[in-house]
Amino acid sequence: MRNPQLNKHGELQHLLTLDGLPRDVITAILDTAAPFTEVAEREVKKLPLLRGKSIFNLFFENSTRTRTTFEIAAKRLSADVVNLNVSTSSTAKGESLLDTVDNLCAMQADMFVVRHAASGAPVLIAQHLQATARDHIHVVNAGDGRHAHPTQGLLDMYTIRHYKRDFSNLVVAIVGDVLHSRVARSQIAALTTLGVPEVRVIGPRTLLPTEVEKLGVRVFHDMSEGLRDVDVVMMLRLQNERMNGALLPTPQEYYKIWGLTQEKLALARPDAIVMHPGPMNRGVEIDSAVADGAQAVILPQVTFGIAVRMAVMSMLAGQ
Amino acid sequence: MQLPDAETLCRQLAAQMRPHVTPDTVLVGIHTGGVWLAERLQQELGLSHPPGAIDVSFYRDDYGARGLHPQPQRTEIPFAVEGAPVIIVDDVLYTGRTTRAALNELFDFGRPARVELAVLVDRGDRELPIAARYCALTLPEPLPASQNLQLEREEDGTLTLRLIDA
Fold it and tell me: Where on this chain does L-aspartate bind (chain A) (predicted)?
């Protein structure tokens, strides 16, 4: 079966997940993103590539950063961007997801950027478009359920490559609530595809998926063991709103054992970088001294995210 | 076809430009051949600013038909464009569409005092109203569209012209 993200020429048709995306496609996206970073320094922060294209931000779940950076990226490419505020939209009146999509297609949509609480919603839209022969319309997954958040994974890879140059000698640790994290799944898929020799996940048993080691990672249940000599620390947000109370005792106790402090970070390599996809819970998964410290690259991640999303959208819309 | 020596053409181009440039003239090369040429011209003409580089991938007019050009390079303009006398440098002038894209991109950095165009070879067959003020060689007959004329740089820095069947 053909990879549903690629067209018959092997080019990117939709971006749905990093799992199974070929290494050369991931590398091409990162390479394409590099020249887009420079646009932010211009007098006119705009490129004419997507002039006349309509991009719909379909956010069925709250997000500020992701929606905003997608919006900025699309606007810097000169596209027309429509943000659908779903709480006041027809969905609240009972319209189905695919009916919403069909209506927006009737308004000449060229691309959908989709965030949904249900895993697989963007895939469903992409399959619907393919089944109805609308190959000129593209879908970008902006985070679906616990499944994937591919542009976050890509911007994380861009950030690692920016600071570490090469993936082939790195030890990377992903720390925290892997169980609920689509970000972690996208990171693991990208890191293993790009040839990182050692990917670690660190967290309490209740917040790691069962058999997570089958994704090709080393599992640690102890911060001081897991962080030893790592080059990159990727913190995850403690997903408070997804908790039902039974998985961990209190945020304070979580911080004591799993929070990233200067003392724990000192176990990593001295030039290790600290990443976080945001929004951060200071004093829960990360200490303020680390979040604002010299090793943190959390704000550059946000800036690189715009360039990576520009690259993805311009590669898709040109197909 | 016997291709002319690029090094000789380069010296001729610099000689044409010399009476008209001032020390604050800035050069902007178009990737990739134009960037090599601009570096060479900046040295030969003794200009004070290092040249800028433009990759027109994001400004091409065939994006809708052909998609994004693979492996775009970084556009780098290391000087203020606002009020500057600019010379755009390219190796080969053909349809003029690349020059159009470079002009559009340049103006997103500011309003230059004036813009001129310098090329090594004019191969004819223009599709836009664009002409080079400085040109070392104009081919007597336009090249067939199936052929690609481009500048290459050897490891020791020597520039050569090559004709490739597309």
Answer: 93, 182, 237
Contact criterion met (CB < 8 Å) for B110 and A35: no
Q: Which of B61, B62, B108 to mutate to test the interface with A (most CBs of A within 10 A)?
A: B108
The reply to whether B15 falls in a domain is yes
pLDDT band at A91, cuts 50/70/90? Answer: low
Report whether pLDDT(A1) > 70: no
* CA nearest to A319 within chain B: B67
Domain that holds residue A32: 23-148+304-317
* A25: closest chain B residue by CA: B70
Query: Residue A98 falls within a domain, yes or no?
Result: yes
When pLDDT is cut at 50, 70 and 90, the band that residue A297 belongs to is very high
Rounding to the nearest 10 degrees, give the CA dihedral for residues A88, A89, A94, A100.
-160
Q: Say how many domains are in chain A.
A: 2
Show residues of chain B in contact with A42, CB under 8 Å: 108-109
pLDDT (0 to 100) of residue B67: 87
| 8 A C-beta contact, residue A260 and residue A230 | no
Binding residues of A for L-aspartate: 93, 182, 237
CATH number reported for the structural domain that contains residue A113 in this entry: 3.40.50.1370
The count of structural domains within chain B is 1
Residue A139 lies in a domain: yes
Residues of B within 8 A of A28 (CB-CB) are 70-71
pLDDT at B66: 86
Task: Give residue A156's pLDDT.
Answer: 98
Q: Is B127 on the interface with A (CB under 8 A)?
A: no
- In angstroms, the CA A80 to CA A89 distance is 19
Integer Cα distance of B150 and B163 in angstroms: 7
Q: Which of A7, A11, A47 to mutate to test the interface with B (most CBs of B within 10 A)?
A: A47
A146 and A173 Cβ atoms separated by less than 8 Å:
no
Same domain, A40 and A71: yes
- State the pTM of this model: 0.91
* CATH code for the domain of B136: 3.40.50.2020
**What is the C-alpha separation between A121 and A144, in angstroms, rounded?**
7
Say if the Cβ atoms of A35 and B57 lie within 8 Å. Answer: yes
Domain that holds residue B113: 6-60+72-165
Residue type, A259: G
